[in-house]
What does this fold into?
Amino acid sequence: MIKRTLILSSLILALPVLLVRLVVAQTPPPIETIIPRDQDRSAASQAAATLLNHTAEITFTPAVTVYLPTIFQNYTSCTTIPALLSPATGTTLNTLVPLFRWDSGNDPGATEFRYETSKDVTFDTTYGFRSRYDAQGIHEYRFSENFDPGTTYYWRAYLMCGEAPGPYTAVWTFTTGSGGTLPPGPNLVSPANGTLVAGTSVTLRWSPLAEAVEYTVYRKKAGSSTIFWKVNNTEFTLSGLSPNTPYEWWIKARNEYAWGAESPHWFFTTGPSGSVIISIDTAPRSCRSQRHAISTQDCLLEETTR
It folds into this structure.
């Protein structure tokens, strides 16, 4: 019997390297590959020795953890600092809802703009927003809630490049106005409270307010969070709603000073997808007993082809 422990040991000790190379070739980064400390290699060692028609005594100390490089998307660190435009620092305003304007610059690696405002210069408590659509160029934003009257606020902003935050702007200040009049809640018009609407879209309408310069439309699906839109007229169409689902809606108006009180909250329920409402007086005889949304595949089809 020839004892070739050294040669066979070299063969077996090379196995961890081969394993790591296989993982690198077949698994996309980022990755952490773990080779257990307690894995028993003795059986594999004896099998390899048998194939070579040798016997050997091998002491094997496996590798433990192999960290492969983490590869990120093509994001570089953000170096562009947004330019704050308004309200100018130190300004005392006559409104509770200032219009914020800024220039994000033209960094192609910027993926998100983030804004922060606070009542204290340390920004321990902040109120702000983030937007993936405002990371390049000049933009503006007005909050849908009032700031406190007669209060000084601090504000700043920065860009994100993927997961990497860029540097902050300088901190600017403004002071809100006070003593103005808040508009009342608008009167809702249609759909009437409790209505069953046809299909999965509906146009909301409300009465105008003489002093209003903007409205916020709120809608809330049962069991979901509130969504809102800002509009300059007195109607708004909701589309893509879920069929056979109750919704809540209400309106709030803004004058030059502030956002006002909310309107009453009304409710409607959508009909089946693709349904219509047919007047009981003009509907086909077979439909007149159905006082609900009627499918286009039965009653509406009959009406258009009779």
Observations:
- The chain has four domains: 5-67, 83-175, 188-273, 276-305.
- The CA atoms of residues 92 and 293 lie 54 Å apart.
- The mean pLDDT is 75.
- The first strand starts at residue 32 and ends at 34.
